[in-house]
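Why do we care about 3D structure at all? Because function follows from shape, and shape follows, mostly, from sequence. That is the central idea of this module. The next example makes it concrete: a single protein chain, its amino acid sequence, and then its structure expressed as tokens.
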Amino acid sequence: MNQAVVTKSFAVTQDVREAMAVTLRGCEELLPQDDWLQKLARSAHTGVPLRIKLGLDPTAPDIHLGHTVVLNKMRQLQDLGHQVIFLIGDFTSMIGDPSGRNTTRPPLTAEQIKSNAETYYRQASLVLDPARTEIRYNSEWCDALGARGMIQLASRYTVARMMERDDFHRRFTDGRSISVHEFLYPLMQGYDSVALKSDLELGGTDQKFNLLMGRHLQQEWGQEPQCVLTMPLLEGLDGVEKMSKSKGNYIGVTEEPNTMFAKVMSISDDLMWRWWPLLSFRSEAEIARLRGEVEGGRNPRDAKVLLAREITARFHGAGAADAAEHDFVNRSRGGVPEQIPEVTLAGAPILVGQLLKQSGLAPSTSEANRLIDGGGVRIDQGLVSDKALKLPSGTYVVQVGKRKFARVTIG
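And the structure:
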């Protein structure tokens, strides 16, 4: 094994301690803390920014608030003057990240990866400063490795160490299959750190094994090993499962402002206080003061409105956040939003289930009937309970749930 570069010791100033506090805010784990403190001190002394890496595989076309937990941390470190690297894992996406999986993850096609990657950086730039962000694709160096390079890379780690990984160990113990190519994923992610000479890599808590692999391989290549910072996995709207589009408990960063605001307002009071330090850019002192006011009798709804406004304004602007708050208050009082889709249908009279489907308020008539049975459909603010209801010619305000509206004209 090559020896990693040993850095000299630098004085830890007050500015360095403040930068360390920014790094630690909301994080789950920083390894090793002493090394990162010295990296910060060296950067402050030399004026050379640290290289901070975040890799995301474009496994879906959109980014949600769960992804922004690490993006927010990147922005905080970017604002301290460091170089952030937004790495799109176009090569590793073709392997499929096994982290937390009970089965082999289906690899994506090159076409799917290209399509998803087109939106990733644009959406990430709603958090990061694009003028100060280095964007890279790991196919740049992974493709160049070739078969010989891949075999040499695989020789730098043992199967025994690989099987210490929790998800691999569980699957092996339970008799579930592990494909050989899955062993390549953490190796390739670790090699990204070698190629980029990163000083710090960020990820969710489920990425710890992969992040530590980067440290190991950098030492193998004679580089100073990166530090590792893990952020908590953001719980979704249900307050139970991690935020995920597949679970339907997510808020997409490009969702309409009214929807985004209302979704934040729908979370529980307990979940709100777990979201505040991870999604807000307010200082920890401000958040602590706000929580103290709520514990002292202030309505927790006030704190939730502030969080909803901040998140909505970040992605849509202050004006849209103002309008979204007004819309939310109006709906909570039983009112109809000022701007709702206009739909024109032909063929009166129309069965209510067909109306919901044709106006885009339900994906199918069976789902429309389920919504009616559940008491989730209103027409002109009146609750609909009869699935056999037929609507004659006219214009109706149709509401499904709390957030879906349409003004439907039947001809």
